[in-house]
Amino acid sequence: MPLLKIREEQPEDVAAIREVNNRAFGQDQEGNIVDALRSNSAALLSLVATVDGQVVGHIMYSPITVGDATNSDVAITGAALGPMSVLPEHQRHGIGTKLVETGTQKLMAAGYPFIIVLGHANFYPRFGFKPASTFGVRCEWPVPDDAFMLLVLDETKLQGVSGLAKYRHEFSTVF
Question: How is the chain split into domains, by residue range?
Answer without folding.
Answer: 4-173
